[in-house]
Write a structure and sequence with these properties.
It is built from nine helices and nine strands. It is α+β, with helices and mostly antiparallel strands and about 325 residues long. The protein has two domains: about 110 residues, Phosphorylase Kinase, domain 1 (2-Layer Sandwich), CATH 3.30.200.20; about 200 residues, Transferase(Phosphotransferase) domain 1 (Transferase(Phosphotransferase), domain 1). The strands form two sheets. The chain has a six-stranded antiparallel beta sheet, with helices on one face. Strands 7-8-9 form a three-stranded antiparallel beta sheet.
Length: about 325
């Protein structure tokens, strides 16, 4: 794709990230009267554009996210078509993925402070609850199950707010496509045992959030086998030790919350993501968004500096705003 590319009132400038299904670009809205705004644009890889299921999934992602209204979920702002391709326009959030921030912490040989872990986990769970409770335009519950709760799909902003993104493989009542039973969707290390057979419920997301919390608290992967068969076997059978076994500073209450979420028995997990978020909120030492923001700005300093430079360059390259002639007659 030749850049910059004009898509209606958007101009795509720079590649931001690349994944298995799509590429995310930095773009700008061009509006009247000098209006401009930096956004992110998600594009399905061209070689996948002929796959009807993947295209339907891509469009569904926009439809599902449009039903979720919550500060812990990155909103989809628009859907644009161009030369037979579909582009999703997303809110651009200044920050870094939890995966990137975790990697930076490990490289610095530091653990994420426990209060920061708890605040991020609570935000994740609140975003999940909003997805789980979402309704369509007619008020009907759509029962969204994210199915890919992982550090790669959690963006922590410089405002200290964690946000979910990428509902591409989410399960919902009104999707245009159906998942074949028994087909695994998601990242195996973060899957609940029942998800390994293709089954997924709202409590599956709660388990995955528990894995994310466990890994933040300990600074290591919960299930670390490179062989997929061994990895799945460990998820099904391996004894899971509480976070305090690897980080003695984790208090008993946080151990209990994490291990309840990680129960292999679905019935023993929290009933809702909101219930788990409330349990975390009752802990005495949960960081404020301001403290998380300070941690993000320090830990992700290198990535943030690079992104800031990119945004500045893009805003400098932006097209001249279109000003209506009527403006000339205003005092």
């Amino acid at each position: 794709m030749q850049l910059p590319l004009a898509l209606e009132r958007y101009t795509i400038f720079r590649e931001l990230a690349w994944g298995g299904m799509a590429t995310v670009y930095l773009a700008r809205i061009r509006g009247a009267a000098g209006f401009g705004r930096t956004v992110a644009v998600k594009r399905l890889h061209p070689h996948l554009a002929s796959n009807e299921e993947l295209v339907a999934r891509f469009v569904d992602e926009a439809r599902l996210v449009a039903c979720i209204h919550h500060p812990n979920v990155v909103p989809t702002l628009d859907v644009v078509t161009h030369n037979g391709e579909i582009f999703l326009v997303l809110e651009y959030v200044t920050g870094d993925s939890l995966a990137g921030l975790t990697t930076a912490s490990r490289k610095a040989d530091t653990k994420i402070p426990i209060p920061i872990c708890l605040c991020i986990a609570a935000g994740i769970l609140n975003g999940l609850h909003a997805a789980h409770e979402a309704k369509d335009e007619k008020g009907n519950p759509i029962h969204i199950v994210h199915r890919d709760v992982s550090p790669q799909n959690i963006l922590v902003g410089v405002d200290g707010i964690p946000r979910f993104l990428d509902f591409g493989i989410a399960k919902a009542a009104n999707r245009m496509w159906e998942t074949t039973y028994g087909v695994i969707k998601g990242k195996i290390p973060y899957m609940a045992p029942e998800q390994l057979t293709g089954a997924a419920t709202l409590k599956t997301d709660i388990y995955s959030a528990g894995v994310v919390l466990w890994e933040m608290l300990t600074g290591r992967g919960l299930f670390r086998y490179e062989n997929e068969l061994l990895l799945m076997n460990s998820i099904l059978l391996e004894v899971v030790l509480p976070p305090s076994a690897f980080n003695p500073h984790v208090p008993p209450e946080v151990d209990r919350i994490t291990m309840k979420a990680l129960s292999r028995d679905v019935g023993e997990r929290y009933e809702t993501a909101h219930e788990m978020a409330k349990a975390i909120d009752r802990c005495l030492d949960v960081a404020s968004a301001m403290k998380v923001a300070e941690w993000v700005q320090t830990t992700g300093a290198s990535v943030l500096a690079t992104r800031s430079k990119m945004v500045s360059e893009v805003e400098g390259l932006d097209l001249e705003p279109q000003t209506p002639r009527i403006m000339a007659h205003l005092p």
